[in-house]
Write a structure and sequence with these properties.
Number of strands: 0
Shape: elongated
Distance between the termini: 72 Å
Helix content: 55-70%
Order of helices and strands: HH
Number of helices: 2
Largest sheet: none
């Protein structure tokens, strides 16, 4: 009987670990989906601002920009700061010569 009890305990542990892994995987999937949504919003916002600067905007473009900014603000409230791919302003480029002796 002791062997059966050990097998039941191990099966329960494996089931628990599988459930935890499933929850972690679901959380990761939700994070990726949220990031894709934010990337799409940023792309649409960039296209609208470009149209505005380029002179090809329509009467609805200003409203679209406001809507997109509002959606991005809601995203940040729920998920944290949007990673827009820009270099942070507190970082200053280094004038150090890279390894290899060449300078960019």
């Amino acid at each position: 009987m002791a062997l059966v009890d050990k097998m039941k305990a191990q099966a329960a542990q494996l089931a628990q670990k599988a459930q935890e892994a499933g929850k972690a995987g679901q959380a990761k999937l939700e994070d990726v989906q949220a990031k894709r949504r934010a990337d799409g919003l940023l792309r649409d916002l960039g296209a609208a601002v470009y149209a505005q600067k380029n002179g090809t905007a329509t009467d609805a473009t200003a409203g679209e920009i406001d809507r997109l900014v509002g959606e991005l603000q809601a995203y940040e409230a729920a998920n944290g700061k949007v990673d827009d791919g820009a270099t942070p302003t507190d970082e200053t480029p280094s004038d150090e010569t890279p390894e290899g002796g060449f300078k960019l």
